[in-house]
Structure formats: structure tokens, C-alpha cells
Amino acid sequence: MKLASLYRSITLIACFTLLFSCEKYYDPTEYIDEEAALTNEADVATATIGSYALLKSEAYIRSGHFLMEYPGDAVAQGQSSGDDLTRAYRYNHINTSGHATNFWSQSYKIVAAANKVIEFVPDDASAGLLQLKGENLYLRAMVHFYLVRVFGRPYPQGKGENMGVPILREGLTDEETAVLTRSSVKEVYNFVLADLLKAAELMSEDKSNSFASKEVAYALLSRVYLYMEDNANAIKYANLVINSGRYSLLEGSEYQGFFKSSPDNNRETIFCIRHTKVEDRGMSSINSMYFSGDVAGNPLGQGVSGWAEIYASKKYYDLVQTYPNDLRNSFITPYLLDGKLQYNQKLTPVTPMYYVNKYALQEGQINLSSPIFLRLAEIYLIRAEAQAKSGNTAAALADVNLLRQRAGLTGAALRTTSNLQTAGMSVLEAVMEERYLELAFEGHRAYDLFRNNMPMERNYPGTHSLNNTPTTNITQKVLPTDPRVVFYVPQAEINRNSNLKQNP
């Protein structure tokens, strides 16, 4: 799929919207027929729903999750797989990666669809049209941000001057898109910021958490500024989200059931990609790699309802088990038979089968989930990290302890400067550990490490040991400066556009 994939008609978008199974591929040289041009607010609303629908593609959701989560140390692959996800996990990247190719192609499809609305709606349009334009600006920003995370180096490296990804603006001709070059990481981040700021300005409706709104834009702004090490703005936009009153942390049993309940009106979720019961992708879901079991949540053998080849790592499991009453233990389901933990026997040493259920059992369906891209807990952690880096120790620890208390921890389990000193931890290290505990399996960990100039270290069973000799060596260490922390630009795209330079 070439860079700027476009749609022929609103009919196709409506088909995708209603069925979520009508997939067709288009050359960027194809153009929108005159009769398919946007003419009114109803057309724009239909096109915008189509933009959201494109997020639901396996090429975006599933491939993107593999690329963003599997390079981290919260997961362990229990056996080698013929799926390209193994290379993402082991850092054995190739320039023909199926998941990288899928993610790149689908991302630019989403941007091309959003651009159609952005170009059509003038800045003096009605409030309804401006809301829709703002939503498409948000989607364009979000997609570019995730692209540059996957294919561009962390912003602090080289102060953003490393190669990023092509920026696909509205109004470009097919000839112009066919020869786009890779903008720098800094240029992409600045483009994302401009889109988010404009989106927040235009949006005035408080929509459900599967649509963009002003606070959704603020939340992503907070994360982007944190990644840029602009701590003041990260705090500013985190405060705008927290103080908006639109969101609150789930508590107790509600928190334990966070990822199983319907996302509708979930007061902690800021933005998710909503999947309904008829959109369960079964063995092609994100969950199929994490879990295999019944509708009661009981784990069963591999292949029953999912492949179940990716587990919570022993490193992560041991950390969350430090406090057995930590409610975050609810998101791990050890596979037990007759009370005994089961192990994947296909490697030496064997891998403990700690099933992850953050993408399972939504509304009682085994493989159904609505992946969460932004939630309030992350915003508190963004603010905590920015405060720690700004020297505001008390404020950082207050946010960390808010989440620890929500997880059921009390007394000595809460963080203080005194017990951190005793443990030999800095305040920033405490924040990073809390991000690890709270946001595991949500696509953050590798980026948290590398943007903070920390290595990714594995010291637990998994296929990463196959990178080493002998295979019984279970350790793996990837430095933040390693070329492998980013994926190759898909070779198919370079073959079509020689202006795209490859990552080292």
C-alpha cells in the first residue's frame, strides 16, 4: 500500500463504518470522484465516522500493539512463532516485517481520510462542522505520533533531529505525496502539537470516550510534551484534563473489572477504540496472543480460544506480587491445573504461563476488548514524571501514592522520601516503576525506558534467550542508543518512493 491511500467514495466509508469488515485497497494515484465530494455537514459526519472506523482494522490495532508492546519487559514469549510478532519481541527486525508494513500503510489511510475533512471545513464554519474538523485533526495528530514512535528515534536523542516519518498534510497532490521525504522527529512532533492545539480550539462537544473532544486532545498533548521533555507543558495539559472533572479513577471491584466492562461511559477512560459485541475478532484479536480460556475467565490450554503464547514476564509478575493485595494482580491470570502453575515447555528454561487479561472478556466475550489509548491514570503518571523531573518531589509522590492507594496499597507500601532513600530509589525511579505496574501491556514500557535513556533488560525465560549462546542464557539487554529500538521503514514503501531513507 502506497503512502497516501485515498477513498473513492463516501459509500465505501459508510460500508466500513456499518460493517467493519468491508476492506478494500486503493492506489494513491486514484482520486475522489466528483460525485463523492463532501457537500454538507451530514457528509462530513459520515466521513468522520469512516475515519474512526479505519482505526479498527487489524492492520492498525493488532499490528500496532505488537510493535509497541512486545519490545518491552512486561511480556515474555513462551515459544517461537511463525508470526512476525516474534521479531518485534526479539528485536530481530527486518525491512519486510508484515506488522510494520501493515501499521505504516493503515496509518496513512487514516490520515488520508482525515485530511479530506480537514481540507473541506473552513475555519469559519458552523460549530458542528468545526467539531468534526477538530476530531479529524486529533486523529491525524494521534496517528502521526504513533508512527514517529515506531519508526523514529526517541525525541531526546539528537534533540529531535533524527529521521522521523513523512508528514501527510491536507491539500497535497498525488504527485507530491508520491515523493514525500521523511521529516525529522522534531518536525513531526511540532506538526502533532499544532494539530492537537487547533483540535482543542475547535472542539466544543463532550462526546463519549470513543470520540475525540477537547480533553482528549489535552491528554495527548500532555503525553507528547512529556516525550519532548517539556515538563511545564506536560503538567499544564495534565492539569487541564484532571481539573476538567470529566474523568475519575475507578475504585475497588470497578477497577478490577476495568478492562472487562463496556467502555461506554467508563469514567476513567479518556479515549479508546470501541468494539461492540459483533466486532469480536476471535483468534485475530490482540487478546488471542495473551489468553486462552472460557467466558468465566478460567484459563485453559493453548489454542482453545486463543494462541496464548505471550505472557506477563516473571519480572513483572514478581514485582506486582510484591504486595499480593495490589489490585493490579487482577490483570494477570496464572494458568493453574490442580492448583499448580503451568509452564510453556517449548523452551529451556520453561516459561511460566501468566496469562494477561487486559484485552479479554469485555462484556463476557473471550476475545473482545476496546483498546484504551488514553486514561486518567496515565495522566496522573505523566504529571508525576514531569514533577519529579522539575524537582517537585512532594507533588510527584502525591500522584504516585494516589494510584497506589487506588490499587489497595496502604501504610508502608506508600512512597515517601524516607523509604525511597532506604530502598536506594530516586523519586523518578519510583514514578517509572509505577508506570511499569500501572500501564503494563498498554504499549508504553519500551518508550518509557528509551526516552529516559534507560536500557530494556530481560532476565527471565522467553524466546529472547535465543538471541544468545547458549540458549539457557535468559538475559537480554537493549541499550536506548541501539539501532534496533526503532523498526525499519517498510521496504515496499521505499521501493515505491526512493526519497524515503531507511533506518540504520
TrEMBL record:
Domain named RagB/SusD: residues: 354-504
Gene3D superfamilies in the record: 1.25.40.390
Compartments, record wording: Cell outer membrane
Record-stated family: Belongs to the SusD family.
Alphabetized PROSITE patterns for the sequence: PROKAR_LIPOPROTEIN
Keyword Membrane: yes
Protein name, as recorded: RagB/SusD family nutrient uptake outer membrane protein
Transmembrane segments: none
Entry keyword set: Cell outer membrane, Membrane, Signal
InterPro entries reported for this sequence: SusD-like_N, SusD_RagB_dom, TPR-like_helical_dom_sf
Domain SusD-like N-terminal span(s) in chain numbering: 25-226
Chief location: membrane
